[in-house]
Amino acid sequence: MVTTNPTRERSSRGLLVDISPLRESPAFARLWAGGAISGIGAQMTVVAVGLHIYALTESTFAVALVGAFALIPMIIAGLYGGMLADAFDRRLILIWGSVIAWGSTIALASLAWLGIETVWPFYLLTTVNAVAATVIGTVRFAVIPRILPAHLLPAASALSGISVGVMVTVGPALAGVLVATVGFGWTYTIDAVLFIASFLGILALPRLAPEGDVDKPGLASLVSGFRFLKTAPNVRMSFVVDIIAMTFGQPRVLFPAVGALVLGGGAITVGILIAAGAIGALATSILSGRLGQVRMQGQAIARSIIAYGAFILGFGVLLAVLATGWFGPVGASIESANMVGIVIAAILLAGAGGADNISAIFRMTMLQTAVPDSMRGRLQGVFTVVVTGGPRLGDIYVGAVAAFGALWLPPLAGGLAIIVLVAVLVRTQRTFRHYDALDPRP
């Protein structure tokens, strides 16, 4: 049985997040701050690309194809990135990944400034950007245990939730305002400038060469990682329930159409809806101090995801009610939008974001504590595929269902599917249901 660390116990008693990792590790502080700042720009571009493609095509399915084209390359990048993290200098991998991501953003800005209206270059560049971001995210996870003591890793996960919350709160809101006021070119360009912060955080890291025996990246290394995952039912179940949540509970590709047709307000409404989920995640991270006291983390993950499904179901019900037209027509300007509907939608999406973030904190802690260090890079590769590839599957699901049905159908049916599937799966997996943080077993 794992003994608790006194420092961790003290930090878990307060309501607010533990900031000890920022004080005790300057390298982590710089990496965290640089990632948060550059992440704001990255989220701006995510929103801007969706709005840009919708403006060019007026098709929700065309927006969904951004995720569809990136899905397979991201899966490969996540798996290979995990192997790279176990075999090479992690700092060097982060540098090269950042160069590629930065270059793709600059290229997107160039397309916008030149007025290119052909859609396929946007798909290509967003795929390259997604691949680079997947590798960066995978390797970054493997870096953190090297620059922080083990007892601060749960606090670091909560701080990561705060940085993500800031990214997807500020970024989409800025994107909506910037696209509506100064256009796509400036929006992409500002992202390229903010990305410099990421370089500064990475360049300040020490050399992070692999320790101990090194497995050469390749099929044998990948097979050994999956062989370990096969014997790790708790970690495997945490991946499965997250895939369910992300596949059936990601209505983001609907937002441009919702902002244009259902709620009104256009790009500003899109920014509000995306930022709402981030605000919920940010709030739960800031108030995460007591989460360290939760022992039955498998149950906490399941309950959080079921709550997530309920909020998404509520969002679908809201869209169905508004789609009846009883509340009158809406327009593209924020003055002619349905403000009551926007507020209710934002509250529901904030609840979904908070529930998803609590689940993510526990899933990350389970992966960090239950998986041995020799497998952490490869398992993080699989984890990265889940958390980044799952939403892409969700984009495909939502885009396909919306193309053949109403806008409210994907979140309504998806939320219901999440609640039922997760409840049934967790009920059948006893070890996950009884997973104890004081005795972590993969």
From TrEMBL:
SUPFAM superfamilies given in the database record: MFS general substrate transporter
Membrane topology, from the record: Multi-pass membrane protein
Classification via Gene3D superfamilies: MFS general substrate transporter like domains
Localisation per UniProt entry: Cell inner membrane
Predominant localisation class: membrane
Annotated signal sequence range: none
InterPro entries: MFS_dom (IPR020846), MFS_trans_sf (IPR036259), TM_effector (IPR010290)
Keywords attached to this entry: Cell membrane, Membrane, Transmembrane, Transmembrane helix, Transport
Pfam families: MFS_3
Transmembrane residue ranges: 31-55, 61-80, 92-116, 122-143, 155-180, 186-206, 261-284, 305-327, 339-362, 382-402, 408-426
Domain Major facilitator superfamily (MFS) profile intervals: 190-442
Record-linked PROSITE patterns: MFS
PANTHER family recorded: ENTEROBACTIN EXPORTER ENTS, INTEGRAL MEMBRANE EFFLUX PROTEIN-RELATED
Name of the protein in its database record: MFS transporter
UniProt organism field: Leifsonia kafniensis
Organism lineage: Bacteria, Bacillati, Actinomycetota, Actinomycetes, Micrococcales
